[in-house]
Amino acid sequence: MDDGTPLELKLTIDRTNRSAIFDFSGTGCEVLGNTNAPKSITRSAILYCLRSLIGQEIPLNSGCLVPLIINIP
Q: Three-state DSSP class for 48?
C-alpha cells in the first residue's frame, strides 16, 4: 500500500478438486483511513477476478465461491 502496509496473497489452485485457496496471511493489520477492505469486498474482488479469467459464464452469487478457501487474517 502507499503507506508501506504489506498486501500479500498466495494463490494455490487444485485442478483435481477444482478448488483454490486465496491466502492473505502476511498482509498488514487494519489501518486508520479508508484503505481497508472488509471481507465482503475481498470476496467480491475475488469473484470479479475469477469471472475475468474464466472463459465462460459463472453465476453472480456466492455459490461459485464454495470450492474456495479465503484466508483473511
A: helix
Pairwise CA distance, residues 9 & 57, whole Å: 25
Evaluate whether residue 71 is within a structural domain.
no
41 in any annotated domain:
no
Q: With beta carbons less than 8 A apart as the criterion, state whether 31 and 3 touch.
A: yes
Separation of first and last alpha carbons in the chain: 17
Q: How many CB atoms lie within 10 A of CB 67?
A: 11
Amino acid in position 12: T
Chunk the chain into consecutive blocks of 10 residues (it has 73) and report each block's average pLDDT, rounded to whole numbers: 86 93 93 86 90 82 86 92
Residues 6+ apart with CB under 8 A from 4: none
Question: Does residue 36 lie in a domain region?
Answer: no
